[in-house]
């Protein structure tokens, strides 16, 4: 209740999403299952958040299943044990009501406002769910409870380690991308950025004399010729250019501009940091 006034800060985020024309995911069964999984295991197991934008549900399930099975068995056992204690059942009902009401309200509101569903909208529900798990730990037989809790703790440890050591799970390294731009290109060489909005965090770390050229969604996906035309007009025949490629799901979800530039501009991958790939091409 104390945090409710902070809801006014959501306005800009919701408005930006409502105006964005990228894919809008709904709260369907796979999204619900993945949401519950992330409450217990985080976002660093199975497909990364960036990969979830482009892969299909079946591919996502195959990738996450080896982790979801032990997490589901351990958490399911503890939830059943906590529920089986009559004294705790009223508390369980209230906690479940908090989770269910929030998820349903978010799903309905997202659909009504034509917004894409995001786990971050309901992430606070991890609190009630973890309390339910804790009730099961308190009621289960000691060694079984320790084993189930150990599985959850092990999975969480692996997730945290992945978050800090595996590139696919790290945040985009805008500082590292800026160092790539400064090291690999001179001030007169054009550097295009997909997705366009990713130019802003990279420019923050660049020298003030350097600028980037954003390529937006409409220039790359809906009408790829426009994006290619921009590169061609800016670069000129035989002149080197660079393409900083990040979050393609918002700028080139089908990889069409990469395919075209590989053919037209002899595009080559030269370096990468977490969340960014640096390509070199030649104007045609």
Q: What do you see in this structure?
A:
The protein has 284 residues and is an alpha/beta fold. The chain has 2 domains: 166 residues, no CATH class; 109 residues. Helices cover 58% and strands 9% of the residues. It is built from 13 helices and 5 strands. Strands 2-1-3-5-4 form a 5-stranded mixed sheet. Strand 4 and strand 5 form a beta hairpin. Helix 2 crosses helix 6 and helix 5 runs antiparallel to helix 6. The longest helix has 28 residues. 30% of the residues are buried. The model has no long low-confidence stretch (mean pLDDT 89).
Give the SSE map:
Elements: H1 10-19, H2 29-41, H3 49-52, H4 57-84, H5 89-112, H6 126-139, H7 142-165, H8 174-184, E1 191-194, H9 199-205, E2 213-214, H10 217-222, H11 224-235, E3 240-245, H12 248-251, H13 256-264, E4 268-273, E5 276-282
Q: Class by helix and strand content? A: alpha/beta
Give the beta-strand count: 5
- First and last CA, distance: 59 Å
Strand numbers in spatial order across the main sheet: 2-1-3-5-4
State the gist of this model:
The chain is of the alpha/beta class.
What labels describe this entry?
5-stranded mixed β-sheet; elongated; single chain; 58% helix; alpha/beta; 9% strand; 284 residues
């Amino acid at each position: 209740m104390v945090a409710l006034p902070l809801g006014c800060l959501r306005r800009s985020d919701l408005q930006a999403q409502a105006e964005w024309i990228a894919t809008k995911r709904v709260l369907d069964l796979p999204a619900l299952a993945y949401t519950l999984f992330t409450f217990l295991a985080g976002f660093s197991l199975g497909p990364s958040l960036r990969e979830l934008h482009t892969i299909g549900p079946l591919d996502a399930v195959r990738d996450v299943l080896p982790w979801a099975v032990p997490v589901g068995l351990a958490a399911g056992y503890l939830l059943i044990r906590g529920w089986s204690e009559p004294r705790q059942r009223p508390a369980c009902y209230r906690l479940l009501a908090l989770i269910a009401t929030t998820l349903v309200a978010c799903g309905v509101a997202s659909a009504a406002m034509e917004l894409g569903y995001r786990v971050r909208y309901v992430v606070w529900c991890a609190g009630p769910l973890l309390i339910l798990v804790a009730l099961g730990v308190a009621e289960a037989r000691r060694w079984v409870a320790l084993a189930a809790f150990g599985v959850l703790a092990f999975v969480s440890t692996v997730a945290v380690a992945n978050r800090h050591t595996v590139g696919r799970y790290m945040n985009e390294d805008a500082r590292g991308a800026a160092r790539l731009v400064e090291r690999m290109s001179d001030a007169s060489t054009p550097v295009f950025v997909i997705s366009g909005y990713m130019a802003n965090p990279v420019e923050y770390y660049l020298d003030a004399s350097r600028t980037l050229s954003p390529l937006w969604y409409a220039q790359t996906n809906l009408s790829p010729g426009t994006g290619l035309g921009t590169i061609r007009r800016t670069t000129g025949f035989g002149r080197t250019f660079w393409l900083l490629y990040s979050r393609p799901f918002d700028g080139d979800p089908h990889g069409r501009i990469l395919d075209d530039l590989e053919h037209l501009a002899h595009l080559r991958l030269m370096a990468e940091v977490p969340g960014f790939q640096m390509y070199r091409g030649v104007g045609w």
